[in-house]
Amino acid sequence: MNKYLSFFKIRLTNGLQYRGAAWAGVATQFVWGGMTLLMFRAFYQNGENSLPMTFPELSSYIWLQQGFLALYMAWYFDNDIFNSITSGNIAYELCRPIDLYAMWFVKNMAVRLSRAILRCFPILIVAVFLPKPFNISLPCTPVAGLMFIISLILGFLVLVAFSMLIYISVFYTLSSLGIRILTTSVVEFLGGAIIPLPFFPQKLQTLVMLLPFASMQNTPFQIYNGYIASSEILKSVLFQIIWLGILLKLGKLLMQQALKKVVVQGG
After folding, report:
1. Entry pTM
2. Taking CA atoms, which of 8, 88, 181, 243 is between 20 and 30 Å from 78?
């Protein structure tokens, strides 16, 4: 356990050094969040009663999305891992007395977390003081706030576990580009990053909620803004735990199978 904790600390410390990039990201996310809210505001002014979420709920959702973007951005992948597979440097990793899956998992957690720590607080603090209804509200209840934190962690782990499947897929391909483009598009759309899932047609929404993507950012953000009723919170969190277990088990199994037939490419 200590060796994996060391990997985590090294990558976390390294990621916290990029403060300039973090401030640039904060500025970009403020602009993007504001543009998104103004776009939705135009729709709400022409039929708010027919829309599934109130505008304050949507506003909280958008600012949470921007504040925790680094945790849930589906397009982020560690290029060092891809390069180690395609270049043959993974041979050095296989010589170490470590679990390769666990090492990659904690490294991905650390990088995402370091970026989120630098970016989330400025965005969320300023969003609190924005004029209503464009601000972020407090959780509807203390229980919802607590369950939001638990769900936030679980959603983060679900996304990392899913990302591990993408890394493992490169053992069977010569390039990661195609699978990365495909999965990024799917996760962004079906995870509620482009359009919140409550805006989907009811039949499609029912199907999407059964997929792991809804257990990523959608669940914690909907718990926070009160869209998920108190009676449904435990069910939603349990669904996250189930998908986390499935993805972890599947990832470890695929990793074991891949390493049995791994072909080192390079000198």
Report:
1. 0.90
2. 243
- Count, residues in the chain: 267
Closest CA to 72 of 206, 218, 179: 218
User: Measured between alpha carbons, how far is 100 from 16 in angstroms, rounded to an integer?
Assistant: 24
Chunked mean pLDDT (size 10), the chain, 267 residues: 78 79 83 89 76 89 92 86 79 80 90 88 90 88 91 95 92 81 90 90 90 93 88 92 96 88 60
Yes or no: say if 183 and 166 are a contact pair by the CB < 8 Å rule: yes
Contact by Cβ (8 Å): 165, 250: yes
Give the residue ranges of DSSP H helices in 45-174: 55-67, 69-72, 79-87, 90-94, 100-128, 142-169
Q: Which of 178, 124, 172 is nearest to 152 (CA)?
A: 124
pLDDT for position 267: 46
Reduced to 3 states (helix: H, G, I; strand: E, B; else coil), residue 217 is coil
Q: What angle do CA 104, 146, 2 make, to 5 degrees?
A: 30
The torsion region of residue 16 among left (phi > 0), alpha (psi -120 to 50) and beta comes to alpha
Tokens of 67: 């504040």
Q: Which pLDDT score, from 0 to 100, does residue 7 have?
A: 74
- Cβ neighbours around 219 below 10 Å, total: 28
Q: In the prediction, which pLDDT does 148 show?
A: 94
- Here the tokens at position 91 are 């041979």
Domain edges within the chain: 2-260
